[in-house]
């Protein structure tokens, strides 16, 4: 599940995600794995499509894999950082919307990733 810009989740979104995963999988997750996404661990092949459908119906973006654009990421920017010089959340959102097709339909010879930092610190949160 692709993370929202700045990694802010509502409790309603997390409850929905966990309810779907309890229904179709093991109930185990890895929040922000190395990709920055929510990793859903442990299910059977026949449960994948129903899980995908339920998450899509709930409004989650499930991303893609392979030779494609990885999920763009951003630091928390002006939402929580006093050093922010630009609105990294808006920039990341606009990039994500512009390249949405490349996230789901591999069209490049190799995968690549875009990150947005709001200041020169280039913190680890991006």
UniProtKB/TrEMBL annotation:
GO terms for molecular function: heme binding; iron-sulfur cluster binding; metal ion binding; oxidoreductase activity. It comes from the Bacteria. Residues 3-56 form the Nitrite/Sulfite reductase ferredoxin-like domain. Keywords: Iron, Iron-sulfur, Metal-binding, Oxidoreductase. Its EC number is 1.8.99.3. SUPFAM superfamilies: Nitrite and sulphite reductase 4Fe-4S domain-like, Nitrite/Sulfite reductase N-terminal domain-like. This is Sulfite reductase, dissimilatory-type alpha subunit.
């Amino acid at each position: 599940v692709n993370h929202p810009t700045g990694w802010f989740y509502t409790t309603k979104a997390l409850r929905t995600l966990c309810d779907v995963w309890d229904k179709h999988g093991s109930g185990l997750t890895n929040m922000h794995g190395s990709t920055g996404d929510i990793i859903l661990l442990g299910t059977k092949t026949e449960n994948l499509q129903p899980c995908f459908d339920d998450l899509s119906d709930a409004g989650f973006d499930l991303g893609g894999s392979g030779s494609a654009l990885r999920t763009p990421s951003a630091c928390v920017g002006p939402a929580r950082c006093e050093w922010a010089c630009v609105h990294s959340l808006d920039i990341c959102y606009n990039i994500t919307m512009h390249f949405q097709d490349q996230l789901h339909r591999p069209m490049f010879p190799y995968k690549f990733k875009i990150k947005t930092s709001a200041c020169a610190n280039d913190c680890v949160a991006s």
